[in-house]
Amino acid sequence: MSERNETILIVEDDAQIRNFILYALRQEGFSCITANTAQSGLSAIVAGQADLVLLDLGLPDMDGMDVIKKVREWSEIPIIVVSARDQDREKAAALDEGADDYLTKPFSVTELMARIRVAIRHLHKSGAAKTQSVFSVGDLSIDLEKRLVYVNGSQIHVTPLEYNLLALLFKNIGKVLTTQYIINEIYGVKYGNDTQALRTLMAGLRRKIEETPARPRYILTEIGVGYRLKDE
Known about the structure:
This protein is α/β, with parallel strands linked by helices.
């Protein structure tokens, strides 16, 4: 086990679950702090004590959705929701409020660690992105400065909307983006919730970047929620 630089805040009021997560993270070399209420969790975030937050939604003093809203008013700290609420609309709502990922209880340690690793990579990439314009995943690359897309080193033609969609996914690589969030960002908030337009746009983009569009390697569908650009 190697020591890691990141400190993870576990905001969970169920002592058994909190201790389970705490033990699992410490076994992986993470430094951890815990909070059993929303207010104590917010205080730890304000004090800058954590690099990433694991957040339960059913807290005794405040709903976790409200915690996400408050934190996103001033901080971009990664937030992974860990909740028993398993409805697609609950997941979508948490992601729309600013959560980076959503893990439904019960979950395995392997899945938890995978989600944490993605969030940490995204955190580090966000810091480096200020001076970087070219991003890659597998054989797919995008140049945000020149607005160019490459597959296997060869430039491919994409429409302006397809480019905007791919750029949005690259800027949030590894994160689940809800369908409504993508529609708002690509078409504007006045567009409404025409998911068919987005599905058509996504299908066109996949045909250009995926070797087998029916079994996508890069842009994965999170059924009932949205899409994720796989962080390889």
